[in-house]
Amino acid sequence: MLEKYFSKKLVEAGCDEAGRGCLAGPVFAAAVILPKKFYHPLLNDSKQVSEADRNTLRPIIEKEAIAWAVAMLDHQEIDRINILKASFKAMHLAIDQLNCRPELLLIDGHMFTPYFGIVHECVVGGDAKYAAIAAASILAKTNRDEYMQQLHEQHPHYGWNDNKGYGTAAHRESIRTHGLSPYHRKTFGICKEMTLALSAQ
Questions:
Q1: Per the annotation, does 17 bind a ligand?
Q2: I need a labelling partner for 198 at 20 to 30 A (CA). Which of 2, 15, 26, 93 fits?
């Protein structure tokens, strides 16, 4: 069962991202402040929750949260500053939008760029340990999936409605067949290889 909070006394926001390991599309991040007593039996790390259950949880989290926000950084910014910095920047942008200022940030992962004026606690596997981080993972994932569905309609041959931009075998084969789209990250994997090959021609 998820822990309801890290600190009983502090107002804490859980933060997580989605899309960090993708070949295409933006990275999304969410910040969520939940009531200390919040509980929902479906809530867990978004990777452990079915798509249908994630879509069920999203409006519940949005309604029940004390505050929540979602932010994104596009593929161009990811290529410019690298995905790790982009993930942290997206989290900062989400925290910026919260209408209630947290006193503690719970970050999924082992590192984070400090957010000025708010202490943070990094928690490896935090989206499977703390409710607020799990809620943030749900919002980040569902918002990004929705965005990738929209991009899929523009570029259906990459299968983004299914792989969401991750480097599946089918996605990589589509890149070899069709080349890079305007939304591929040129500093990632096969995309980087193709970009370098084209620049050398």
A1: yes
A2: 26
Compute the mean pLDDT over every residue in the chain, rounded to the nearest whole number: 96
Q: pTM of the prediction?
A: 0.95
pLDDT category of residue 12 using cuts at 50, 70 and 90: very high
C-alpha triplet 79, 85, 86: angle, nearest 5°:
60
Is pLDDT at 117 greater than 70 in this prediction? yes
Residue 16 annotated as part of some ligand binding site: yes
Q: Is there a contact between 32 and 61 (Cβ–Cβ < 8 Å)? A: yes
| Inter-residue contact 58 to 142 (CB < 8 Å) | yes
Q: Which tokens hold the place of 130?
A: 């703390």
Query: In 10 A of CB 136, how many CB atoms?
Result: 36
HEC secondary structure over 92-104: HHHHHHCCCCCCE
Q: List domains and CATH numbers for the chain.
A: 12-200 (3.30.420.10)
